[in-house]
Amino acid sequence: MYLYRESLLKNMLSTSDLRKEIERRLRSYLSRDKSGIRKALLNLLIRVKSMTVPQIHKALSTKFDVTYHSVASMVGIVASKLGILSTHKTKDGSLGVYELKEQYVDLVEQVVAST
After folding, report:
1. What is the distance between the alpha carbons of residues 44 and 50, in angstroms, rounded to a whole number?
2. How far is it, in rounded angstroms, from Cα 111 to Cα 22?
3. C-alpha distances in angstroms, 101 versus 78, 87, 98?
């Protein structure tokens, strides 16, 4: 479903308009970040580039009281609603690996730094 919406957006919006829409969604997402965990997740993805949900959970759980399922949900929302993550499977096919899409790294860095 997400890919369908993304392709519709891409066909309807110019590249700059798409970036503006993603920036709007990103700012809205971060505006609801009461604990700082969403910002920490994005900073982690900016720094590390490529991570699985267990790796993200391990990193976030050092600073936040967070369950594995809540981290998986948060990553899923960032991937599907914001559209800034790409995913692929590990070599053995057991885990999804999430990466910040290269074309949005600068945008995410800018938004995270300004919030």
Report:
1. 9
2. 11
3. 12, 9, 9
CA distance 65 to 95: 23
Residue of 30, 11, 9 whose CA lies nearest to 20:
9
- Quick one: fold of 2-114? Arc Repressor Mutant, subunit A (1.10.10)
Residue 28 predicted with pLDDT over 60: yes
Q: What does pLDDT average to over the chain?
A: 89
CA 60 to chain centre: 14
- The torsion region of residue 87 among left (phi > 0), alpha (psi -120 to 50) and beta comes to beta
| pLDDT above 50 (res 23) | yes
Dihedral angle, C-alpha 41, 89, 99, 31, nearest 10 °: -40
pTM of the model: 0.83
Tokens 């999804």 correspond to: 96
Q: Which helix (H) or strand (E) holds 60?
A: helix 53-60
